Amino acid sequence: MSETSYDAVDAFTMGALGEPGRRTFVIQVRAEGECRTIKCEKQHVSVLASALRRTLADAPATAERPSRGAMALEDGEDQDWVLGEIGIGYDQDADAVRVVLHDLTAEDDGRAPARVSARITRVQAVAFCELAERVVAAGRPTCVFCGRPKDPDGHACIRMN
Questions:
Q1: Given the DSSP bridges, would you call strands 34-40 and 81-91 parallel, antiparallel or unpaired?
Q2: pLDDT digit string (tens) for 111-151?
Q3: I need a labelling partner for 8 at 20 to 30 A (CA). Which of 50, 67, 116, 161 fits?
Q4: d(CA 82, CA 26)
């Protein structure tokens, strides 16, 4: 297994590339002069943000936020691999969250599985959640009848047709 572990990161962020309905989601970890960009699904981002919020629910609130530049993607077009499983845990003594991202497609590609483990601050975790919630919400609107996303070209609702 190819594992990269960071005890401090410069940035833990995410973004969506492309137009709603055809977006590619990525999570990016920047540390020690390296940049890891992991392709993922919108649901990965949403579930990770939700899990981080639950994990930090009992931690002290923080008003501090990273700079906008720290949350911006660096060349998200070149992804290292596709995200499979996500693990998180809170270290109360260090007041930090450990996020572990596991490679989904390694065995299919004949590669050794990859994993990135990053210890992020509470400030970075909250900023990730805020950004993720904004980016996910900026997608296609959902149909009030069936709950599926509406395409700009129209929507064939299974409940209304």
A1: parallel
A2: 888 999 999 999 999 999 999 999 998 887 778 888 777 77
A3: 50
A4: 9
DSSP character string of 36-102: EEEEE-HHHHHHHHHHHHHHTTTSPP------HHHHSPS-TTS-SEEEEEEEEEEETTTTEEEEEEE
pTM: 0.86
Question: By C-alpha distance, which of 24, 37, 14, 51 is closest to 103?
Answer: 37
Is there a contact between 76 and 17 (Cβ–Cβ < 8 Å)?
A: yes
d(CA 22, CA 49): 21
Closest CA to 11 of 36, 30, 38, 35: 30
| Residue whose structure tokens are 């970075």 | 124
The distance of Cα 129 from the centroid of its chain, to the nearest Å, equals 9
